[in-house]
Please model this.
Amino acid sequence: MSEFIKSNDVKFTRGEKCLFTHIIITFVLIITLVIVYFIHLCLVDHSGNEIFKTTRRHLTAISPSFKEDSKGIGVVYLNTTPVKFICVAHLLRERWSVAPALCVTIRTEPNMAHLLPMWNVGYMTNPNQYMTSDVTRALVYPGYNKDDLNNNIGVFEHRLAIMSTWYDLSNSNGPKTTITYAMTPKKTEIVSLNRKTLYTDDNYRRTVLETNIAKPVPHVQCRQIMTPIIEPRDNEFCVTVGQESNSIIAPGAVVLINSKISGFFSWGHNQASDEPIVILNISYYTAWLEFIISQ
Model:
């Protein structure tokens, strides 16, 4: 009897054992991936039916990067198809945004009249919320000169209140404080657009703001380099942004000195390089900005 049982014992070949092992490993991996996917759905915010999309998304499909220092910095864009980026802006008050006059005046150009209802601002107010509003009015500083970009500052008024960090009109730099190399700021940064995510057919949510280290340029050196184009004025200063940056130095790109907004990109080369770019010192316009928001 024992010989009969022994002769009927089931034995697996080496190939069958290998196949069985692969099936078990594959099954375990599938279960693991399903668990990871559901954890991802719980932790990452998705809009609409985006959770059902199984195709690979472009890098720009991620949410905009969020840093506390860049809170209150956003974009001005045309809500068309595809969306058209105009410039970088930052909040002055909940219904007011500051931007270069060069950007603001585009809205009133005759050939842009049919696009007036399409002007919008968009701000990342926290890691999971992106607020937008349509623009209702655009004002330019009275002394703005479009030929040499002197006093290149203006404001947009938007219909909806955007609750985020505002530009501090009582900035510690003080009114009409000349930004000079001698001040040797501890940290100088510029917030602009990521080069890889700007030129896509995606929407404004895909525009990723990127913070890069900027280097202050001595005022004398700034004038020597830039004067053949336009001589920098007392209300302007220069910085450089290294070539290793992925940023497009967009109009209005915001410069922070020691984590405080000090100005924005007014004119110069819009590609990151060793060439200086000219930054407009916002503290020179405190009185005008206060008058505007008090209306």
Q: What stands out?
A: The chain has three domains: 13-56, 68-169+286-293, 181-282. DSSP finds six helices and 13 strands in the chain. The helical segments are 2-7, 14-43, 101-104, 195-198, 219-226, 286-293. Residues 181-282 form a domain with the Thrombin, subunit H fold (CATH 2.40.10.10).
